[in-house]
């Protein structure tokens, strides 16, 4: 039974779940010490997340940009690049999509691809420049991409302030043309026909009419699976991972390191850009507005990527969880009156503990090792007490000492068979994380 | 300090956490099981959340029914957040007054991004609020849509006329040019360098009231007192960028300004700090901001959003006022003005300012709110 516990502890999913639970526990203490009932706060959090079908849909909508940026960061990280510029690339995506969406008025078949593509290209170009500077001159991508975040932010504010785009008496631009909208049935759902058809499906009506249900999440999930496939199953992905693991070894093996770095940043930037573009086409206000501070889609994407252990597919649940915490957090504020700072601390604590998830497998190892030591001591004792006697006892004793020399070896012979699979699993997980 | 103000009645008491101390003395693995149980409890509480909510809110209404009918009013802030030392904060204090004086159920939702406006208004509707206040003209479109989707709920928007012809939106606007005129007059009287500044938020009709009211006040003081005070103004194009407010102010100081009027929400906090550092006077906006920098904030162009919110909320929910109207409030309604404290400007200037206030109230002076009106005003001097 103890061995199953160890086995379970070693699974990456277990550590994620335990970390989340510990996160909630610590957050409960934070809330309680700030004078807010943690039970009621969490109740509000969950009811705000999943309390109604519409809330679930809103969580999904909010998760879409986080997922894109999460994949982008995870992908770059696998190639050994820390793309902290996801935020800026996202902003450039929104800016380009807004400019194109306002200036061009084409039929939807052309308008949507054009707007989304413009955002994607904007993000990709910014990524390309960062990658090129890294590959050509060795300028660290963290510095350039952080600076690019600010360039993007002020570029956004500049575009908003231009008379061509600025909608008078607002803090933002005009909305892009209707033909660029990527919501599901945007016109039909508000038309008389649509209303009449939906009247029999209250849940569907609720979700469709009162949320900006859009196709973004589908694209994001496809992107996550595609990037996962690209990394694991293609020559290109193999080369990129090789560059990420050891640049020099990769170069020695004949892989073009520079090309792969630039390519990686292009893809990473494009993913962030497409997130921005799809947010412009998919959700109101369908335009950009003056940013006083970052909206944190990219930075939250960073957290999503690392919660997911930098696995693109694992970013899907991670982004949903993150978006749920952010969206549900507002309900805590509404019903508990807790200030948003406390909510942010609560969310931060949960994410922090999730980041500590890697501790759990180590804990499993520690338990195993101490048990092996205990077994060894017991053997020694038995050997001393039993003095000369029968051979079997001596044999088992020596065998156990042998086992104890290897700290990973299980104490009980019965679990010996399970051991190799365990460690290989663990190695696999580690490899993924890297 | 914001936390203290925002204390709410604990209407959710009773859902206590399981005993936490048990975790410390157990071994980790056993604690783990406990943690799982805790998580399960949390999830269960989560599921029951909505039902317990409705029962407790009905409790509240029955217990306070003695003091008249209670109503549920919520507000959604713009991206400045509820602690912006300005507009949103003062709106929230208005709602809190409704809670204290009338026993109404109030709460707020903070918007972090522009895309939060729609979802936050939606959440307020879900919470069965009868009246939902949208704070700031940036939310006009979102309110228009929410009102269309929820014809049974009343909406109010501050600083914007009813954006649609919907009968369930009330637009509340202020003649901020009147208070800006007075503080412009005071600034010109107090200035020693002959230069005063004005830092504004995002360029819009509402902010032009502040800009031209202030300029007109300076021009009026020049005429009346034979001064030659120059006024420069700049838009920060943001309501939440304190750093930008600070750097604009530093530039104004180097240009020789010794009084700077801020009308820029959260950006204005940076303006006041920069004035404090430079040792010059600042003029606050919306609420009496003297607490932000003692000895620096000369006066404030009050825009008593809280007064308006309390008044309009009561009238709307008692049926005195039908939705769909537009309300404009000014000096004569007591909704704009200056605070009574005149320790920094001296009694003479204050008395002169009060005289100007009377002239505005009587209609002898009509402070301009647009560029055209300003030109006409200056020409008529």
TrEMBL record, chain A:
Protein's recorded name: ABC transporter permease
Cleavable signal peptide: none
Keyword Membrane listed: yes
Classification via InterPro entries: ABC_transp_permease
Principal subcellular localisation of the protein: membrane
Pfam families assigned to the protein according to its UniProt record, in alphabetical order: BPD_transp_2
Biased composition, class Basic and acidic residues, residue ranges: 423-434
Compartments where located: Cell membrane
Residues covered by region (Disordered): 389-434
Keyword annotations: Cell membrane, Membrane, Transmembrane, Transmembrane helix
Transmembrane segments: 12-35, 55-77, 89-108, 114-133, 142-160, 213-231, 261-284, 304-330, 342-364
Topology of the protein relative to the lipid bilayer: Multi-pass membrane protein
Organism listed in the record: Tractidigestivibacter montrealensis
Keyword Cell membrane set for record: yes
């Amino acid at each position: 039974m103890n061995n199953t516990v160890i086995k379970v502890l070693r699974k990456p999913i277990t550590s994620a779940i335990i970390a989340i639970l510990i996160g909630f526990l610590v957050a409960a203490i934070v809330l309680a010490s700030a004078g807010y009932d943690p039970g009621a706060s969490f109740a509000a959090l969950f009811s705000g997340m999943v309390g109604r079908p519409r809330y679930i849909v809103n969580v999904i909508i909010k998760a879409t940009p986080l997922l894109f940026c999460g994949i982008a960061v995870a992908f770059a990280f696998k190639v050994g690049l820390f793309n902290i510029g996801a935020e800026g690339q996202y902003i450039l995506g929104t800016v380009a999509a807004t400019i194109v969406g306002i200036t061009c008025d084409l039929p939807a078949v052309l308008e949507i691809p054009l707007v989304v593509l413009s955002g994607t290209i904007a993000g990709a170009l910014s990524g390309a420049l960062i990658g090129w500077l890294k590959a050509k001159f060795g300028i660290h991508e963290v510095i350039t991409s952080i600076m690019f975040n600010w360039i993007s932010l002020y570029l956004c504010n500049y575009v908003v302030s231009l008379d061509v785009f600025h909608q008078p008496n607002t803090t933002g631009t005009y909305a892009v043309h209707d033909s660029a909208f990527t919501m599901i049935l945007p016109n039909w759902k508000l038309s008389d026909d649509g209303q009449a058809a939906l009247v029999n499906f209250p849940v569907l009506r609720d979700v469709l009419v009162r949320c900006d249900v859009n196709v973004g999440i589908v694209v994001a999930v496809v992107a996550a699976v595609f990037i996962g496939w690209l990394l694991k199953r293609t020559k290109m992905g193999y080369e990129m991972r090789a560059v990420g693991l050891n640049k020099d070894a990769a170069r020695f093996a004949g892989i073009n390191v520079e090309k792969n770095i630039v390519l990686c940043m292009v893809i990473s930037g494009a993913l962030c850009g497409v997130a921005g573009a799809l947010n412009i086409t998919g959700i109101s206000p369908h335009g950009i507005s003056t940013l006083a501070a970052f909206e944190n889609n990219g930075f939250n994407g960073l957290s999503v990527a690392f919660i997911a252990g930098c696995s693109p597919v694992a970013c899907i649940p991670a982004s949903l969880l993150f978006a749920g915490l952010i969206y549900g957090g507002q309900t805590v504020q509404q019903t508990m009156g807790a200030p948003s700072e406390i909510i942010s601390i609560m969310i931060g604590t949960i994410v922090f503990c999730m980041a500590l998830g890697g501790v759990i497998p180590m804990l499993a190892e520690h338990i195993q090792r101490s048990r092996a030591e205990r077994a060894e001591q017991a053997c020694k004792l038995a050997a001393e007490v039993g003095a000369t006697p029968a051979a079997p006892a001596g044999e088992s004793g020596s065998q156990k000492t042998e086992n104890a020399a290897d700290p990973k070896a299980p104490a009980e012979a019965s679990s010996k068979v399970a051991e190799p699979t365990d460690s290989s699993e663990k190695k696999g997980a580690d490899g993924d994380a890297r | 300090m914001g936390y203290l103000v925002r204390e709410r009645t604990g209407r959710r008491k009773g859902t206590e956490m399981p005993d936490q101390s048990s975790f410390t003395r157990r071994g980790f693995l056993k604690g783990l099981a406990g943690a799982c149980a805790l998580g399960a409890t949390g999830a269960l509480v989560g599921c029951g959340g909505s039902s317990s909510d409705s029962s407790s809110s009905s409790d509240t209404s029955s217990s306070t029914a003695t003091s008249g009918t209670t109503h549920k009013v919520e507000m959604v802030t713009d991206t400045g957040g509820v602690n912006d030392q300005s507009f949103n904060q003062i709106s929230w204090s208005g709602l809190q007054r409704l809670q204290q004086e009338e026993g109404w159920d109030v709460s707020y939702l903070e918007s972090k991004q522009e895309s939060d406006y729609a979802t936050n208004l939606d959440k307020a509707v879900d919470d069965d609020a009868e009246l939902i206040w949208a704070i700031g003209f940036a939310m006009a479109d979102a309110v228009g849509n929410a009102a269309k989707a929820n014809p049974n709920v009343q909406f109010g928007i501050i600083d914007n006329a009813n954006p649609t012809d919907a009968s369930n939106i009330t637009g509340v606007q202020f003649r901020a040019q009147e208070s800006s005129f007075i503080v412009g007059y005071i600034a010109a009287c107090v200035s020693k360098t002959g230069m005063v500044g004005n830092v504004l938020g995002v360029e819009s009709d509402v902010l032009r009231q502040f800009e031209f009211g202030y300029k007109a006040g300076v021009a009026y003081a020049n005429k009346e007192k034979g001064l030659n005070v120059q006024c420069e103004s700049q838009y920060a194009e943001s309501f939440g960028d304190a750093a930008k407010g600070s750097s604009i102010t530093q530039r104004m100081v180097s240009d020789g300004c010794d009084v700077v009027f801020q009308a820029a929400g959260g950006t204005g906090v940076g303006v006041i700090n920069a004035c404090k550092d430079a040792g010059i006077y600042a003029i606050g906006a919306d609420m009496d901001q003297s607490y932000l920098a003692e000895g620096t904030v000369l006066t404030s162009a009050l825009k008593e959003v809280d007064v308006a919110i309390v008044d309009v909320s009561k009238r709307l929910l008692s049926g005195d006022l039908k939705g769909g109207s537009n309300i404009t409030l000014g000096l004569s309604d007591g909704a704009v003005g200056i605070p009574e404290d005149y320790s920094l400007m001296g009694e003479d200037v204050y008395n002169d300012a009060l005289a100007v206030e009377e002239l505005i109230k009587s209609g002898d002076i009509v402070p301009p709110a647009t560029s055209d009106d300003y030109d006409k005003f200056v020409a008529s001097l």
